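Wait, mind explaining this?

_____
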Amino acid sequence: MVEVIGVAFKEGGKVYYFAPTKGDYKVGKGVIVETARGVEYATVVMPRTQVEESAVVLPLKPVIRIANEKDEETHRKNGEKKEEAMKTVRERIEKHNLDMKLIDCEFAFDGARAVFYYSAPQRVDFRELVKDLSSVFRMRIELRQVGIRDEIKILGGLAPCGRECCCSSCMPDLKKVSIKMAKNQGLSLNPGKISGLCGRLMCCLSYENDYYADACRRVPKLGSEVGTPEGKGTVVNINMLKMTVRVRIEDKTKDTVAYRDFNVDELKFKRRPCAEADEADGGEGD
């Protein structure tokens, strides 16, 4: 077992493990850590805890220190510079007539670098823009293109369910989502009903997929013929939560039709594999 603390560099962002030093690492506390991009400010989201060695990449980098008042002030000022910086960059983008949309920006804790995130329909030659911005901000400038799912993760918004988008609130990593998941759950394949703000399949389709993937193997196919305690019939409805099936039973001798609900275990039918998505559907991602 290894003792670690978990920190995030952005609210709702991915959690990274660091080796704690002396101090009280309460959730919400600011800390200064060393990363591949230099010294950065992060927020504790997981106090001291023990994890399996297989869950971390050793050796872990230690926390440099718990953020002091000066560190907090520096972090606050970096945040305050964001709005004005975004305005300046948008003006420069317009000046250079570039087809790109500025999404977000962040300043390195030591003030030596600024990173600007943007989206664009195609590759953008921003070399002149970078030179222009370097002269304005007097620091190293990085421009990073992001995909449509990452754009929504950064900007946030209200999803069709009325809650904040999962990707920007409670999902540190974007998960692979496929049309197969919607088929497993018996959802309408209307793009307008199963797509999020990004226009891609909703991330939440993956939440219960394991259950539905298993359930659809244990229920008969809609429209198939099954054997019931009352004779053979045709499946007209399936409830994979209650694991019940509604069957249409036709009695030709009496010229009558009856609809009965049965538990899956009461039926006789050929077990089927879970619905498979077309190769072209694949997984959603950038």
